[in-house]
Every structure is written in structure tokens, then in C-alpha cells.
Amino acid sequence: MVQLPDFFFILVAFGVIALAARQIGEFFTRLRLPLITGYLFTGLLVGPFVLGFASEASLEHLRFIDETSLAFIAFAAGRELYLPELRGRLRSINLVSAGLIVATVGIVTTAVFLLADYIPFMQTMGGSGRFAVALLAAAILTASSPSSVIAIVNELRARGAYTQMSLGVTVIMDFGVIILFALSSSIADALFEAVPVNISFIFLLAIELALVVVLGFVVAWLLRWVLKRHINASLKTFLLLLIGYGVFAFSAWFRDFTHANLPFELLVEPLLTCMIASFLVNNYSSLRAEYSQRLHDVAPYVYIAFFTLTGESLELDVLAEAWKIALAIFVIRILARIVGSFAGGLLARDPMRNNRVKWMAFITNAGVALGLAKEVAVEFPFLGSNFSTLIISVVVLNQVVGPLFFKWAINHLGEARPKAQTAEFDGVRDAIIFGVEGQSLLLAQQLMRHNWDVKVACLQPSLVETSAGSTSSEVGLVTLNDYTLDSLHALDAGRADAAVLMLSDEENYAICELLYEQFGTETVVVRLNDRANFDKFHALGARIIDPATVMVGLLEQFVRSPSAASLLLGMDEGQDVMEIELRNPALHGIALRELQLPLDTLVLSVRRKGNTIISHGYTQLELGDRVTIVGKRSSLEEVTLRLDG
Question: Going by C-beta distance under 8 Å and a sequence separation of 6 or more, which residues neighbour residue 567?
Fold first, then answer.
């Protein structure tokens, strides 16, 4: 039994390592590498084979973290499968998924079996043992990575048939792979124990699956019970993870119990149990939103702990001997993906243009695959870490290369919707305000006083109703038939440096998307009507004004810093604040302290590529920097001329 002081020391030490892994993972993202690569690297670095901070004995004491994380991964896989979102595309999704599963299992199983003589830990095995390992490897490598696919789709703002198919298939695949793994592990267990695969074995397998389904319903009831409690959100999350760990503990106990008291052994696959429970909560309860939020909140911490611990268990000596085999399996898996996705696409009668690049969406391979690899080490201890090290090596290769292929495919098919290139500054500051009302007309007049060229646009009926009694002769009013791309081109939106949207949220979002995708408008300000729409405007880089909270925020600033608030609102006579973009090539690389500015001006901040820099005298300016300066209006005009060049 582990002494409590030793256990707590190991736990605290691992917590410190996990904190370091978080920072190293963030650093790896700057190198365009996945977060999990940083976590695995940190674990490998502190593990027994490099720095030796973590011993093999200490890793055994942290097994509960592995099992809790595996339960979470199964919960997350079940949550991804939401039937209403897949209806209407199920035929194509199911056929492509079936093609991928059949091709990957068949080709990878055959390849690993034939390569057994070159894999150190398989060389001493008999034919049945080699086939069992090959089957387990194929089942694990059949998995895809919904989280990676979703991240890429969000990054590229992709939309289209290929994108929707990719999302649907990766979600279905995770569900199917865990079922496939449950079957494969039962078959492998029989092969390792030399149990004949006959009618009795099939009957036992059916009993195991029935027990899994029953236990899945029980766990789903427990999850719903916890989610319905009016308790602290963190406590709810802890109880959900505790239930997941309990499933693994029960599975291990039940396996030992049947082994000791029955003439046969029964394995209630805990991953499949957790996934079924999660699927039931997600699709057949009113708690889907609450459940998703709890999993979303805890996901980063679980992944840091799990992948760091996985990195610590990697065996470098096995990796050094088998890296060529890992590379070969990586290539063979890609070939299997090509065959399976193309065959499934043909059966589904998908466009041939899509079928040729369909495989590129299914190379990524992360959470579920790594979880299953660790599960093999738990269920088949005699394989040790040898098996998981080999599989993890292949998974890392898939995770590094896969996103590159998928991004290329989305761009090749024209389904990416990134931000358009911002037009070069033409020397005149142009703004377009959408919507005619008192506030928009007043805003236009204020901007015009600061030498902006302003247009106020709206649909003709709105113009008639709202501006009949308005004095707007100074403002350029433009009537539009609709808010389509053609109308924005007619409005010359490509030259606009800023746009202000003061319509309904639906109209604002349609215009905001067009400005983002077609014109790359640098500054878009949106007046929000419904707080629920905040995130989708924020994803387009818009500056969002929420009338429900802006007045409270403004009053707070007047209380806490009245001088700054007055200055920003232009209430301080003779003083103003302006953000100026550096366009003068002669000033590129110059330090702020060397910039000859009027004595009555002060640089407040420098914003570069969307990030605010805490500036000081030695901060070097770069072209495109947006410099915020306070001073007299006449002096600000002088600075503007200097920075514009």
C-alpha cells in the first residue's frame, strides 16, 4: 500500500510538472505544433529516460489520473454525437465511415502482423499473439480527431459539403472506434489466453456487450442526477469525473471477481460504458447544454494531466528501436485512409472532386487514440509501455501532418472563408455607417469633424421613416436595395477603413461576414441587440458595443478615473485621443524615444497584429503598428502627417 506522505509528494510534484507542461504547450503552438505535442514533450523530458524526475513506480501511483482522463475522453466522444445535427447527411457519413473502418482495420492489421518480426516486443510472440496485437493497433489507429477537425474548421471558417462531411464522419468514427476497440480487446483477450473462438466465446461476448449497455444506462442516470443538483459548478464537474473513475474501478473489480468465482472472465469495457452514458445524456435529456459546459470547462486541465502523464510513460529505448516501424505504419495508415474514404465516397455518390481529397480530413489522430493506447497498457499489462509507445509515436506523426493536409484540402475546394486582405490606405479615412437614426447621423457628423469621409447607408423604406424630420444635409446618405455583396461593392466598401453596424443582429451579422471575407475591413464596430450573439461577432474580430452594459461601464470609468473618461469622450477642451497607423517606411524600426513628437503629445499604447504592447522609450515601431496618442488636436494632426508619411 502506498504511504500517504509519499503519495501526496508524488501528486504535488506531478502538479508542478503539469503547470510547466501548460506553458511549454503554449510555446509549441507558436511553432505551429499541436498543444498535445508540448504536453507529451514535457512528460518525456521529466520521465525516467531523460531527467528522471518521474520514476516508473511513481507513475503507477498516478494510474487514477489515467483512468479518470480516459473516462472523460469517453464522455467527450459520446457528447460529440448529437443526432439532430447529423440527420439528412447520415447516408453519406455512414458509408464513408464504414469504408474508413473496413479499410483501416483490414490494411493496418495485415501490415502490423507482417511487420511483427521487426517490432521488438512482438518478435517472441506466436501467431495468435501477433494477430491480437495487430488487431488492437488497427482498432486504435482507425480513430480520428473531432477536436482537431473542429479547430481547423473554426480557424478557416470553412463551410461546405466537404467540411460538413468531414465533421460528421470524425464524430461518428469516434463512436464506432470505441465499439470496435471493445470487440477487438475481447477477441485479443481470448487469443492471449488461448480461449477458442467458438459459439461459447460469441455468447460471452454478447453477455459483455449487454452488461455494458445496462451499466451505460445506470451511469447515464447518475450523470443526470448530478447535473440536476443545485450545487457549485466545480463540485458538479468533480462528481462527473468521480463517476467516470468509478466506472473504471468497477470494471477492474468485476473482471477480477468473475475470474476468481466463475469458470470464465467477463470484461465490462469502461470506455464504451462511459460513451454510451454520455450519448444518452446528450441526446435524450434536457441537460445537454449544462453537460457540455461542464465537460468544456474541465477539458484543458484533463488533457494537460493526461498527455503529460502519457509523455512520462514513453519508453525512449523502444522508440529508438521502432521509429522506422512507426513511420511505416504511419504511411500504411494514410494509404488505408485513401482507399477507405474513396470507396465510401463512391458508394455515397459524392462528387469526384471531393473524393480525391476526402482522405486528408481523416489523418488527424489524437485524444481517443491516445486514450485507447493507454487502455491497452491497463487491460494487458504484459504488453507494458512497449505497445503504447509505438502507437503514440504514430499518433504524434498523424497529429503533426494531418492538419496541414486538411487545411490544404479545404482551401483547394474553396470552402475556406478567411479574412480578406485589407486594402492599402488611399490617404483618406473612409467610414460607412449602416442604419439611419439619430445616433448614426450624430456619429457621422462627429467623424466628419475629424476629417473622415463618411457614408450612411440603409434600405430605402427605413430611410423614409427615420430621416423625414432629420437635418442630415451634411451627411452622405446612400440608399440600398439590400445588404448583399453587390450592394457593398456599389457602396465602395473596399475602401472603407471602418464600418459601424447599427441594424438588427441578423442584418449586422450578414454585413459583418461580407466585410470580413470579401473586403478585410480593418475596424468593424457592431451595436449588439442580443447578448447571446456576442461570440459570433467576436469571432469575426468586430468591436462590440452592448447598450445594456456600456452605460454602466462608462459611469464606472467616470467614477474611477474621471479625467481619462472625459479625455476619451472628447469632453476635455483642446485635448483628444487618436489611434494612428504607422505607414511611413522611413520610421520602420525607430524607437519611440527617437520619434520627434510635439511636446504636448503622449504615446499611450502601441497595438501590433491585434496585440497591445506595453510601450516604453525603447519600443521599436514597425509598419502597420497602431499608435494611440493623446494631445492637442492641432498636434495630433501634425503627428498623423508624420506617421502616414
Answer: 575, 576, 577, 630
- Whole-structure pTM over 0.90, yes or no? no
In the block, residue with C-alpha cell 453587390: 486
Strand order in the sheet with 476-480: 476-480, 453-459, 430-434, 498-501, 523-527, 543-545
Distance CA 266, CA 491 (A): 71
Three-state secondary-structure class, residue 236: helix
Torsional sign, CA 570, 574, 575, 581:
positive
What H or E segment, with its residue span, contains residue 636? helix 633-644
Strand partners, 603: 629
Residues in the chain: 645
What is the largest distance, in Å, between two alpha-carbon atoms of the chain? 94
Residue 88 confidence (pLDDT): 64
Q: If we measure between CA atoms, which residue out of 443, 434, 525 comes closest to residue 487?
A: 434
Residue 241 has a pLDDT of 92
CA distance 637 to 626: 15
- Distance (Å, whole) CA 456 – CA 476: 6
Do 526 and 501 form a contact (C-beta atoms < 8 A)? yes
Distance between CA atoms of 36 and 54, rounded to whole angstroms?
A: 19
pLDDT at 391: 86
For residues 583 and 173, give the distance between their C-alpha atoms in angstroms, rounded to a whole number. 50
Q: Which residue has the cell 489524437?
A: 366
The residue with cell 522506422 is: 324
Residues 364 and 396: their CA atoms lie apart, in Å, by 9
Q: What secondary structure does DSSP assign to 570-595, as a single string? A: T-STTEEEEEEE---GGGTT-BGGGS
Angle at 290 between CA 285 and CA 294, to 5 degrees: 125
Provide the pLDDT for residue 331. 94
Q: What is the CA radius of gyration of the chain?
A: 30
Contact 577/571 with Cβ under 8 angstroms?
no
Non-local CB neighbours of 543 within 8 Å, separated by 6+ positions: 523, 524, 525, 526
Domains contained in the chain, CATH given: 71-412 (1.20.1530.20), 430-545 (3.40.50.720), 573-644 (3.30.70.1450)
- Cβ neighbour number for residue 55 with a 10 Å cutoff: 13
- Of 554, 623, 636, the closest CA to residue 590 belongs to 623
- Calpha distance 460→479 (Å, rounded): 5
Task: Please state, in angstroms and rounded to a whole number, the distance separating the CA atoms of residues 319 and 302.
Answer: 25
pLDDT, residue 568, reads 67
Long-range contacts from 130-134, C-beta under 8 angstroms, 24+ separation: 131/191, 132/187, 132/188, 132/191, 132/192, 133/188, 133/383, 133/387, 134/108, 134/109, 134/110
Q: Using 50 as the pLDDT threshold, list the residues of the chain that sit under it.
A: 1-2, 463-471
**Cα 507 to Cα 337, 434, 444, 501, 543, distances in angstroms:** 42, 10, 20, 9, 16
CA pair distance 246, 640, nearest whole angstrom: 65
Alpha helices in 81-192 (DSSP H): 83-86, 90-114, 127-141, 146-156, 161-192
Task: Report helix angle 35-46 to 288-313, nearest 10.
Answer: 40
C-alpha grid cell, residue 98: 464504414
Give backbone dihedrals phi and psi of 431, rounded to 5 degrees, phi first: -135, 145
